[in-house]
Amino acid sequence: MYESPELRRLFSTYSNSKTPGRESIADHLSTLSMAEHRDDTLIVATATDLAVYPGGGAPPQVQGFRINIPGFTELTAISHLGPAIASIVAISLRGEDELWRRDAQRLIDDTRRVRAADGTQLWQESLEITAFEGREERIAAMVDYACAISERYLVRALAEPGYLSPATLRDDLLDGRSTGLPVSMNRIMIATFALYALDFTHRLVNWLDEIRVDWDRTLFAITGRQGRPTAGTSKATTNLARIMHLVSGGRLSVDRIFVAPTMPGFETPRDGDLSEVVAAEEPIRWQLARVMSSAELAPIMYDGYPRFAEPGLYGPDLHVGASSVTEMPRIHGPDDWLTMFTRLRLTLEDPRQLLAAGVTDFVAEQLLEAGNDPMAVTVPGLDGEPYPPVALAAPEQRQ
After folding, report:
1. Mind listing the pLDDT tens digit for each residue in 111-146?
2. Cβ distance 257 to 220 under 8 Å?
3. pLDDT(18) > 70
4. Domain boundaries, the chain
5. How far apart are CA 352 and CA 238, in angstroms?
6. Could you count the other beta carbons within 10 Å of the beta carbon of residue 373?
7. 32-42 pLDDT, tens digit each
């Protein structure tokens, strides 16, 4: 391909990101911007960890989240029961009888194993999650119950030809309308997401309070893949932006939050080795400086034209009778089931959304209003729900 050397030189004079010396005009401005923000706190989120760089060359601190904290996998396993059984229904609709029946039996076997291993001791002693103190017995009962009603539905599907369908899934399990379930699977899914949010936010607030983050001078970058390949690519579609904004008490300006799915972060540190985390700071600060410096040109070049306004982190409130939503509506209380269940549908149907984002911001908001006291928060789908202490399935199925 022919390239004019003169025009190529002109192009590179302004912008040449591949030059190690950072000698283009754009690089000069970015270098100045980076220097201006070098002492600002930088918080970086990867898919599994958060790092706080205090600025001024001070060493970072790291804390895990999602799969890197106790209880995440266990709670997610229960929240996956609904989509797992829905997937079995979808497989059956394709006429793959042998496949769906085999998968149904696998799920039955796994739920029975979970019920045999579950109990208050698991949540109280083995996992030992501070934010769950006082709720361990209820959580164990919820897990047992979720496995029992899932097993009951699948056993009937295997035994009764024609029973497995989207309608029976919704009526007999997810909503529980026709069977009169004490607690529906939809509420259980909400509870698992809420419990994760309770633990994560509680840990996060304690950690950041110890560090004493100066929120007015903080940059927050969300790097790499967050969940599905298409998910969490904007501030409105990642629960981390909403949670961090809440945790800061609104002091973290939304225009200082950067969602950067193509920006490399760092791998989870092993054995306390933070060398990769330390090495990541400079390139991340440089990339953010490039973004901020280009945004700085807008008012210089186009003063008098309409300016960009940050979109809200929430969509419009959901109203009874609405047939569709395009963004996350705000939850208005622990009994706002219409909004919470609509959010569950949105997280599945909208490829931009994170699957676990159904109620995380709502729980975080409650927790912060309660002074970071987990017991002062209502966990929707868990607190006040009539989970039976003894599960519905026959005793021999607990062996």
Report:
1. 999 999 999 999 999 988 999 999 999 999 999 999
2. yes
3. no
4. 49-264+315-390
5. 9
6. 11
7. 999 999 999 99
pLDDT digits (tens, 9 = 90+) for 204-228: 999 999 999 999 999 999 998 888 8
The C-alpha atoms of residue 340 and residue 333 are separated, in whole angstroms, by 10
User: What's the per-residue H, E or C state across the chain?
Assistant: CCCCHHHHHHHHHHCCCCCCCCCCHHHHHHHHHHHHCCCCEEEEECCCEEEEECCCCCCCEEEECHHHCCCHHHHHHHHCHHHHHHHHHHHHHCCCHHHHHHHHHHHHHHHHHHHHHCCHHHHHHHCCCHHHCCCHHHHHHHHHHHHHHHHHHHHHHHHCCCCCCHHHHHHHHHCCCCCCCCCCHHHHHHHHHHHHHHHHHHHHHHHHHHHCCCHHHEEEEEECCCCCCCCCCCHHHCHHHHHHHHHCCCCCCHHHEEEECCCCCCCCCCCCCCHHHHHHHHHHHHHHHHHHHHHHHHHHHHCCCCCCCCCCCCCCCCCCCCCCCCCCCCCCCCCCHHHHHHHHHHHHHCCCCCCCCCCHHHHHHHHHHCCCCHHHCCCCCCCCCCCCCCCCCCHHHHC
- pLDDT of 81 reads 98
Asked if 215 and 252 count as a contact pair (C-beta separation under 8 A), the reply is: yes
- pLDDT tens for 163-205 read 999 999 999 999 988 777 899 999 999 999 999 999 999 999 9
In a 13 Å sphere around the CA of 169, the CA atoms on its Cβ side amount to 15
